[in-house]
Amino acid sequence: xxxxxxxxxxxxxASGLGEATARKLASEGAKVAIFDMNVDAAQKVADEIGGIAxxxxxxxxxxxxxxxxxxxxxxxxxxxxxxxxxxAPASKIVGRNGAHDLDLFSKVINVNLVGTFNMxxxxxxxxxxxxxxxxEERGVVVNTASIxxxxxxxxxAAYAASKGGVVSLTLPVAREMAPKGIRVMTIAPGIMATxxxxxxxxxxxxxLNKSVPCGRMGKPEEYADLVNHIVNNAYxxxxxIRMDGALRMAPK
Length: 252
Known about the structure:
Elements: E1 7-11, H1 16-27, E2 31-36, H2 39-49, E3 52-55, H3 61-75, E4 80-83, E5 94-95, E6 98-99, H4 102-127, E7 139-144, H5 148-151, H6 157-177, E8 182-189, H7 195-198, H8 202-211, H9 220-232, E9 240-243
Parallel strand pairs: 1-2, 1-4, 2-3, 4-7, 7-8, 8-9
Antiparallel strand pairs: 5-6
Helix pairs in contact: 1-2, 1-9, 3-4, 4-6
């Protein structure tokens, strides 16, 4: 699917993987709506790419439905929806302060898994109302997991569980939507050079780079390039692509 002139939504588009994706899709001619809780940062990116910024809590039904309505009013129903919004707090099951906080676990699941499902269900509902753009495709949904779904480290129980859920979501949704012309894919990034990691001390960054067989962290632009390829490759659906430089994470 060529995105030229088509509407796209990117969650978490104010920074990191989402920002790179929003910029890439806009450079390919898409009309991009950036969904983010940090609406000021989202607006800055939107202004630079000719898109719009919409405040959205991806894990809240009403907020998400209102955000989709705003994007639909501005650009029309989205043909491409990419979920990059997520959080990654670390906590051991039993730490210095006792058992893992249950509210924290629930928050991670709500943002990363429920939020991804929320975006997926609304995206598919809108896409089903559209005519195929090329005789077969109505739209593409790209979700973001993490290699932690398979290589979860100590302290990543909540994060790994949430991303494992995103992985497990991929095939059943893709199977349901494929006959209707909607493709569903998931990318599982490894260590990526996002603002959070680039803000760490240089020695920490060096250690992270050395842990990757390819010798460096991935670039957000490389994630964005993969999203763009998925959108353009009409036979990709129902799969999880690890993007990790051959990294398999150690226990800690």
